Description:
This protein is mainly alpha-helical. It contains 3 helices and no strands. Helices cover 80% and strands 0% of the residues. The N and C termini lie far apart (86 Å).
Amino acid sequence: MELHHILLGVVGFILFLFFGLDIMGKAIQGTANVLIMGFSKQAGFMEPPRVLEPHVVKELLERKTGEPESTSHDRG
Length: 76
């Protein structure tokens, strides 16, 4: 009966090493990622995406193509 308990303990410990440490590692890595993201956002490394106003988009398109946006649509 004691051998049975010892074997169960060994098998349980091996399963813990195989699955438990993997799950804990993923949890620790996820926590580290969240902390790094928070610190970098606080430090200003990650800026939120800028929303361009429609008139700015028109200006950028005109600069890129070299002609007003309305004439480029009329040709198509």
